[in-house]
Design goal:
It is a single chain. By secondary structure, the protein is mainly α. It has three helices and two strands; from the N terminus they run αβαβα. A two-stranded parallel ribbon has the order 1-2. The longest helix is centred in the C-terminal third of the chain and has 24 residues, at about 45-70. The N and C termini lie far apart (about 25 Å).
């Protein structure tokens, strides 16, 4: 859902950055990463921050795996 929203509303010509000041589990960061949109994520809770970093790293590793197979 987030990817669809970003695809519909993010203006690539503006070269803007998506800012998520309550990133929680990092869903916005992952959607931005998948679409190649620059982003900034902020999370006050250290556990949520650590979990979201780990989750994003797993997505990035998965994408590298697919690129290496091609």
């Amino acid at each position: 859902l987030l990817e669809r929203i970003l695809r519909d509303y993010y203006d690539r010509e503006s070269k803007g950055i998506v800012a998520d000041f309550f990133s929680g589990s990092g869903s916005v960061a992952i959607a931005c990463y998948n679409l190649g949109i620059p982003f900034v994520s902020v999370e006050k809770n250290l556990k949520h921050y650590d979990d979201s970093v780990k989750r994003l790293q797993e997505v990035q590793a998965q994408m590298r795996l697919f690129r290496d197979l091609m």
